[in-house]
Amino acid sequence: MDTWKISDDLFCLRSHNATLPKWYTQDVVKELDSLKDRLFWLFFTDQEILKLVAGVFLKDAFDRLDDCVYKSTSESSCSESLFAYSAHDTNVAALLGALGAYTAEDRPQYAALVTVELLAPSASDVPPDGGYLLRLHYKRGWRDETGSYVQFGACRDREAKEGCAFAPVRESVAALLLTPEEAEEACKAEWLPSRYRLIVAITLSTFLAILFVTLGAVYCVVWRQRYWQYGQQGGNFGVGSHLPYSPLVSSPSTA
């Protein structure tokens, strides 16, 4: 079970002044928050998880940014001033992680907000990216009234408020981008991992072999018993009375 679901449920109960369990003390609150911070850090610094959680959004966002940065005015469809996306805290954390801006203290709270600003170049800037800058602003939750600028992982040597050149940021996320079709394919779960298939096949084959041998043995015993009984009753199987004694199908002779 996801630990943060427990924490979220209890937070909602507390926010609505509902009756809380007696075991829900301040120490438990701190312990759950600490554990939740660690889980978010583990999940959203893992490249494969980031790709699956944020890859489709990043592809859409950077396709739009590419359109503004690299195409001429006549070719570009970049006419909007703002693109807004709604998301959960896990999506926000994954976005920050993909951009190299997530830290253990940055777990999104309710009403968290990430803003990516595309800054136009000055007249002296030249291609390939025309001097465009990206700047990242993060409001951590409803208690954080103003938020602050945070720096992209591609520009650790610059102040966050100075932003980062578009090209290195674009390059840093290139391996994470996914189309919706690629994401659907990547998220398909195998019925059984390939490394376990041979083990299951051998186990199943052994079980079936034992089952068939057991059924065959039972059939032989039953057939032998009936054959012997028929011979004892003077049936056509006259040789039945001459069968050797078997404790499984007959009683020893009392004569």
Characterize this entry briefly.
By secondary structure, the protein is of the alpha+beta class.
List keywords for this structure.
alpha+beta; 3 domains; elongated; EC 3.1.3.2; glycoprotein; Acid_Pase_AS; His_PPase_superfam
Write the layout of secondary structure elements.
Blueprint: H1 3-15, H2 26-43, H3 47-70, H4 89-98, E1 113-119, E2 133-139, E3 148-150, E4 164-165, H5 166-173, H6 180-186, H7 194-232
Antiparallel strand pairs: 1-2, 2-3, 2-4
Give a description of the structure.
The chain folds into three domains: about 1-45, no CATH class; about 45-180, no CATH class; about 195-230. It has seven helices and four strands. The radius of gyration is 35 Å and the shape is elongated. The termini are far apart. With about 260 residues, the chain is of the alpha+beta class. Strands 1, 2, 3 and 4 form a four-stranded antiparallel beta sheet that branches.
